[in-house]
Amino acid sequence: MQPKKSAKYFYMFISPWLLGFFLLTFVPLVYSIYLSLTEYSGLSAPTFVGLQNYKDIFLFDDIFRKSLFNSIVYALLAVPTSLILALVIALLLTKESKISSFFQIIFFFPSIAAGVAVYTVVKFLLKGEGGLLNYILSIFHIKGPNWLTDTKWAMIALVIANLIFCGQQMLIFLAGIKQIPVSYYEAAKIDGANSIQCFFKITFPLIAQVFVFNLIMGIISAFQVFVQPLVMTGGGPFKKTYMYGMYIYDSGFGFGRFGYAAALAWIMYLIILFVSRVVLKLVERLMHFEE
């Protein structure tokens, strides 16, 4: 096939994707930048105000600082716990068997299920009175707290709920582990290495890039969390779990300040970009990745 004809078919086949990307992603993205520089209620035409929205956010908005702080705390707790649990489960399911396949499906299922439905069930399980978790604790004569209404435990409850969705990270870890040749472990055992030494000397170094991928994706997801606190706590008690994503939503659809909400969204984008870049550089330096 001639190069020109090949290129013609190439662009013809990808044209639906290009059209969708342009209309549904690129144009809204550019428009949101413009919208962040305006005052827009959704009912009248946008009024250009320049950087006023950004000035108001950084200088006068206490809710912005509170919601950002809550999101940072959540990320610091949820990301490492989810990564560790996903890695442990992946290590336990490395052997090929029907039982392993069954548990892979079980752990991955919440990641593809409707988030609202799953969090509604988790909310019921974490009820202070009559919740399953507190019932299990009572068997061991431990009085469980009011997970979702106690200011000390509400954030912890969200972190616990997040662990249910570690199945996607688990599968990525599992795929990385299965790429490691078995001969490496056989040679290490011949030299007298135990399971812990094999993990730190063979497994983890060879899945380091997979770990970094899950880490960055976990950070992005944690900063964007919205449905989980909305369904489980509504941002309470006393805004202890009021996340940044909830504030963006409330600013636009609750307060009718769509320009302000667009500015908040772009600030979050820059924060995620900065944090992800810093973490990536730090991890690369610690693990001595090659550029």
Report on this model:
- The chain is mainly α.
- Helices cover 73% and strands 1% of the residues.
- It has 14 helices and 2 strands, in the order αββααααααααααααα.
- It has helices at 3-35, 52-60, 62-92, 98-112, 115-125, 132-139, 154-162, 167-178, 182-190, 195-206, 208-223, 227-232, 244-254, 258-287; strands at residues 38-39, 47-48.
- Strand 1 (38-39) and strand 2 (47-48) form a beta hairpin.
- The radius of gyration is 23 Å and the shape is globular.
- The model has no long low-confidence stretch (mean pLDDT 90).
What is the CATH level 1 assignment? Mainly Alpha
Major sheet: size, sense and barrel closure?
A: 2 strands, antiparallel
Q: List the strand order in the largest sheet.
A: 1-2
Strand content: under 5%
Share in helix: over 70%
CATH topology: MetI-like fold
Q: In one word, what is the shape?
A: globular
* Gyration radius, in Å: 23 Å
Q: Whole-number average pLDDT?
A: 90
The structural class is mainly alpha
Strand-and-helix sequence, N→C?
A: HEEHHHHHHHHHHHHH
How many domains, as an integer?
1
Unreliable residue stretches: none
Write the layout of secondary structure elements.
Layout: H1 3-35, E1 38-39, E2 47-48, H2 52-60, H3 62-92, H4 98-112, H5 115-125, H6 132-139, H7 154-162, H8 167-178, H9 182-190, H10 195-206, H11 208-223, H12 227-232, H13 244-254, H14 258-287
Antiparallel strand pairs: 1-2
Summarize the structure.
The protein is an all-alpha fold and 291 residues long. It has helices spanning 3-35, 52-60, 62-92, 98-112, 115-125, 132-139, 154-162, 167-178, 182-190, 195-206, 208-223, 227-232, 244-254, 258-287, and strands at 38-39, 47-48.
